[in-house]
């Protein structure tokens, strides 16, 4: 930012580039992707041509080396068309960044060229059937055998599972708790890797979600990202950025629904005049716009802190994620109400955004966990 309250010219150019891409390649097709559960791999790959597959991967590794605010601007713009697709691209970026930031040169050379171009797609594997919010209790185990790790266990709710080729996976290599967790890059075609059925979800229909199952998978020791026992720290650092991106996806989706509500209430007439002329409608729209701008300002500030590696970056990322996702869902819900019965129909985009944004207060750490993080930071002596 040029000052505390504005974007730089470069940031505005990035934002506009993402908006044009969304208008051309995402918005016209998003309803069909949702209705028919289409995974738009070609569109996602086209985003990579703009650098959107490696937003904060270093230039040495082929990325565009932008900050977390620029990433948030991109995610916000793309979610204006489809939050599900934007969130998927965010997850790929998180996995690529982990490899670039913590991987050895060998791991970088092996995976990043194809991830930067999205010739291969990446998933982030932390959650398990028995450990969601309590991520440090994960049980997927890796046992050393010569030059390999033998991995056994399963991961739950994995975006891109079955479609993606690369899985950045948190595994237990040592003692119970966070210090016994390490990070391995596992490939789809390694013997012993399989996938559960595609989950039947409320929203996020443009991306597959499955369980990933590891049955004695032999993974080269060279595929470890970071040192042994560093996986949990890496996972949490990745989540700072992931929380910002998912918050940005809520902002973009909510902005779309606010714009749709404004247009609809101008056109829709009841009792002899446009709904937009009623004071009640104007008050609702005013509150929606005000709350959205407040959430956006906090998220942008948190993004700047994460980029700068500020000491309070995790607290602010949690605050911003909580506020942006709760606000986004609230704004979309009111936009649906302003559409009346039509808002409940698939002929209008509101109900799709209502469904897609609902999960944002759950993933990347539930909003209850976000409150725990903030509260712990506030009361720490």
Automatic annotation (TrEMBL):
Q: Which cofactor does it need?
A: FAD
Name one matching Pfam family.
Answer: Acyl-CoA_dh_M
Supply the alphabetized keyword list: FAD, Flavoprotein, Oxidoreductase
Membrane-spanning segments: none
Residue ranges of domain Acyl-CoA dehydrogenase/oxidase C-terminal in the record: 229-378
Q: Sorted alphabetically, which InterPro entries does this protein's record hold?
A: Acyl-CoA_DH_CS, Acyl-CoA_Oxase/DH_mid-dom, Acyl-CoA_Oxase/DH_mid-dom_sf, AcylCo_DH-like_C, AcylCo_DH/oxidase_C, AcylCoA_DH/ox_N, AcylCoA_DH/ox_N_sf, AcylCoA_DH/oxidase_NM_dom_sf
Question: Which SUPFAM superfamilies does the entry link to?
Answer: Acyl-CoA dehydrogenase C-terminal domain-like (SSF47203), Acyl-CoA dehydrogenase NM domain-like (SSF56645)
Domain Acyl-CoA oxidase/dehydrogenase middle as annotated: residue spans = 124-217
On whether Coiled coil is a keyword of this UniProt record, the answer is no
Domain Acyl-CoA dehydrogenase/oxidase N-terminal: start-end pairs: 8-118
- Which PANTHER family does UniProt cross-reference here? ISOBUTYRYL-COA DEHYDROGENASE, ISOBUTYRYL-COA DEHYDROGENASE, MITOCHONDRIAL
Family statement: Belongs to the acyl-CoA dehydrogenase family.
Q: By what name is this protein known?
A: Acyl-CoA dehydrogenase family protein
């Amino acid at each position: 930012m040029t000052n505390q309250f504005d974007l730089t010219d470069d940031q505005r150019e990035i934002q506009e580039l993402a908006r044009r891409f969304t208008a051309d390649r995402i918005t016209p097709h998003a309803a069909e992707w949702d209705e028919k559960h289409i995974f738009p791999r070609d569109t996602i790959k086209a985003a990579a041509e703009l650098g959107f597959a490696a937003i904060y991967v270093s230039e040495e590794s082929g990325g565009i080396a932008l900050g977390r605010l620029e990433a948030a601007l991109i995610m916000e713009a793309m979610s204006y068309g489809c939050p599900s697709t934007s969130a998927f691209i965010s997850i790929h970026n998180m996995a690529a960044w982990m490899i670039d930031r913590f991987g050895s040169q060998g791991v970088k050379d092996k995976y990043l060229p194809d991830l930067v171009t999205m010739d291969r797609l990446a998933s982030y594997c932390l959650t398990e059937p028995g450990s969601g919010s309590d991520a440090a209790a994960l049980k997927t185990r890796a046992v050393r055998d010569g030059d390999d790790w033998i991995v056994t266990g399963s991961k739950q709710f994995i975006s891109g599972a079955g479609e993606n080729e690369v899985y950045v996976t948190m595994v237990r290599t040592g003692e119970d708790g966070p210090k016994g967790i390490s990070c391995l890059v596992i490939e789809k075609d390694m013997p012993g890797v399989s996938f559960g059925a595609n989950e039947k979800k409320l929203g996020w229909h443009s991306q597959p979600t499955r369980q990933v199952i590891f049955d004695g998978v032999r993974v080269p020791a060279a595929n470890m990202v970071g040192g042994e026992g560093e996986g949990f720290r890496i996972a949490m650092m990745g989540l700072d950025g992931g929380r910002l991106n998912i918050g940005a996806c809520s902002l973009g989706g909510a902005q779309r629904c606010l714009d749709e509500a404004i247009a609809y209430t101008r056109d829709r007439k009841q009792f002899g005049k446009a709904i937009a002329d009623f004071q009640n409608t104007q008050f609702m729209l005013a509150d929606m716009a005000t709350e959205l701008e407040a959430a956006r300002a906090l998220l942008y500030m948190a993004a700047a802190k994460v980029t700068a590696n500020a000491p309070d970056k995790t607290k602010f990322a949690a605050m911003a994620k909580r506020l942006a996702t709760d606000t986004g869902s609230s704004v979309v819900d009111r936009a649906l109400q302003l559409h009346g019965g039509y808002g409940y129909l698939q002929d209008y985009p509101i109900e799709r955004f209502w469904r897609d944004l609902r999960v944002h207060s759950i993933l990347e750490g539930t909003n209850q966990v976000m409150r725990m993080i903030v509260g712990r930071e506030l009361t720490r002596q």
